[in-house]
Design a protein that fits this description.
alpha+beta; about 600 residues; 16 strands; globular
């Protein structure tokens, strides 16, 4: 049996939430500062079983069973100590540290959490005392944020100077190092400077309530970057965190649903109106990790989007992420707001009661799915119904929950007037057809840049599939270049002067190089702004629009690792080809030997 590092065991409560863990097995209801349920160990109907999120502890006042997360999993799942830890680690996406084979728990984790709390306190103090605080105070008042809600979310103010945070910690070298690692202090041409300046600050908490990152809102709606987020770090990943989840649990008596909105201010405004079961994604599309967290917290997830084209497009992406994750007892719904409205503005125009009625009336996933596909076809015609069947069958095949999949098939059959058996047959055929889909055909318009444009990722060989792993085998250079383009389009912050220099040395990399240069100018640049310069090359422009889609989703850290891994692979392959060419063109054995000696010398250096 492997021996798990004691430091990993000790740090485990800091990386998980016992409420999440237990609620997945025993439905909990908020009761005061605790969560309550009938005891899973002795039975009964009374809610004698209490879970304390702050202490990460459970206790039954009837039978006396008590303990922490590991103890609960041992008893409830009937596992031994190591199996319980492995179960918890698997559910929360943690890598277990074993004493005999791996390093101890990263000592930076606690330091990063502590310095993040101090930074939050600094921003909160600036909101009260900074000479420039008036604009932040007026902004909060104009948005209807009360002092109580500002305190609840620990809102703060980043002063306009570029060195206030830096000067606050200047005497602590370790703190400065950690702040740079967290992206709160940046290194520039003229010295270090604060990343957040002249913004209303929103601390981002993990499920335990620890500050792990920040979001900053500009006061001018016309600002180039209205919202900024902290960089991803060892304690913060946008794809795994939801803003407001800690507050939803803390201030909701029960969580019979969770409303997923798009911005910090929407969460804060809804709390101000008394609607507390609300969270927001952190400037990124909904991910599988987000859904896993939501499904551990509640059985009903309601996605809330603007009713415009962009909102419906975002909702459609969320639907496609949700389909494979539907399981027994889980319901996904979609709420579309009137054009020009968001939760913040609408709840002020209407009332909390009216807004909650909208939540209650949200569309079930199945209705949104069918209605959306209907808008894409001429449903009143035979051809349109055929197309409807083909499009829906592909989506239905991604559902892993067989009962729900069958219900969707029955729904399609009723809509198009076909038998369930016929629809089932088409669904089965769609799966095999999808696996045999040929790569897209490229037009002559792409000739100038065809070296950078390749088929979609599902057509790539196994060695270049997405995932943060090194690429060891020689691979298709076009495929690698296309992957790098997709990563830059989705994560412009990957671009820096070093990356530009390395990309410049790669043969046939004009498109990628232009994207890197544009991304360096503004790391928060929108995808459309990145690809607009290629509008006059229609083939390239259309392919870039296709490459804007990143599937599967990667965190910022994973994307960086993947990008650098591909870049290293291309450089190695290019160097190898250059060496082969040099040897081939060597006129004498002596020249070949010199080339080989140079290779060996470089290997010793590395």
């Amino acid at each position: 049996m492997p021996y798990i590092s004691q430091r990993f065991i000790d740090d485990l409560p800091n990386q998980i939430d016992i409420v999440d863990l237990i609620n997945k097995r025993v439905p909990l209801k908020k009761s005061g500062s605790d969560y309550r349920a009938p005891c899973p160990f002795h039975g009964g109907k009374n809610s004698n079983f209490a879970v304390n999120a702050h202490k990460q502890f459970y206790h039954c006042f009837k039978c006396g069973e008590s303990g922490g997360a590991i103890s609960f999993i041992q008893k409830f799942d009937n596992l031994n100590f190591v199996e319980a830890i492995e179960t918890i680690a698997s559910e929360f996406g943690l890598a277990i540290e074993y004493d005999s084979n791996s390093k101890p728990v990263d000592p930076r984790l606690e330091r990063y959490r502590e310095i993040s709390k101090k930074v939050s306190d600094f921003y909160t103090l600036q909101l009260r005392q900074s000479p420039a605080r008036e604009k932040a105070v007026n902004y909060a008042k104009n948005r209807g944020i009360s002092g109580e809600i500002a305190k609840r979310f620990q809102l703060g103010f980043a002063p306009p100077s570029n060195k206030d945070l830096l000067l606050n910690f200047e005497k602590n070298d370790q703190a400065i190092t950690d702040l740079k690692a967290l992206g709160l202090i940046k290194e520039g041409q003229y010295g270090d400077y604060d990343f957040f300046r002249d913004r209303l600050m929103f601390p981002i908490h993990n499920t335990k309530g620890n500050v792990i990152a920040f979001g900053g809102r500009a006061f001018d709606d016309d600002a180039k970057a209205k919202y900024l987020n902290s960089a991803e770090s060892t304690i913060f990943s946008k794809s795994r965190e939801l803003y407001g989840l800690h507050h939803a649990r803390k201030y909701s008596r029960s969580i019979n649903y969770l409303l997923v909105v798009e911005g910090y201010m929407d969460v804060v405004a809804l709390h101000q109106a008394g609607i507390t079961k609300v969270v927001a994604t952190l400037g990124t599309a909904t991910t599988q990790e987000h859904l896993q967290i939501l499904m551990r917290t509640t059985n009903v997830v309601v996605f809330c989007f603007d009713g415009d084209k962009a909102g419906r497009s975002a909702a459609w992406k969320a639907l496609k992420i949700a389909l494979p994750m539907i399981k027994t007892g889980i319901t996904f719904k979609f709420l579309f707001l009137p054009d020009g409205e968001d939760p913040d503005t609408l709840v002020k125009k209407e009332s909390a009661k009216a807004f909650e009625k909208r939540i209650d009336g949200a569309q079930p996933l199945s209705k949104f799915l069918f209605d959306h596909v209907k808008t894409e076809v001429a449903f009143d015609t035979i051809e349109g119904k055929t197309s409807f069947l083909e499009k829906t069958s592909v989506l239905i095949k991604s559902v892993n929950y067989e009962v729900y999949q069958h219900q969707l098939i029955e729904g399609v059959a009723q809509l198009i007037g076909q038998s369930v058996e016929q629809v089932q047959l088409v669904c089965d055929q769609s799966k095999s057809q999808k696996q045999e889909t040929p790569p897209p055909v490229f037009t002559d318009e792409m000739t100038d840049y065809e070296h950078t444009m390749v088929p979609d990722y599902h057509d790539f060989p196994d060695e270049v599939q997405l995932g943060p792993k090194p690429i060891a085998k020689p691979v298709n250079m076009k495929a690698l270049m296309s992957k790098m383009i997709t990563l830059i389009l989705n994560y412009p912050s990957l671009a820096d002067s070093t990356v530009e220099l390395r990309v410049r040395s790669i043969a046939n990399s004009q498109v990628l190089l232009e994207l890197v240069r544009s991304a360096q100018i503004d790391e928060n640049i929108e995808q459309l702004d990145l690809i607009n310069p290629f509008e006059n090359k229609l083939g390239v422009f259309n392919r870039l629009k296709q490459l804007c889609v990143l599937e599967p989703h990667l965190s910022e850290l994973q994307a960086k690792e993947e990008f650098l891994s591909i870049l290293n692979s291309i450089e190695r392959q290019q160097n190898g080809e250059q060496i082969k060419a040099d040897i081939h063109h060597a006129h004498t054995l002596e020249e070949q030997q010199k080339i080989m000696q140079g290779i060996l010398k470089n290997k010793r250096k590395t």
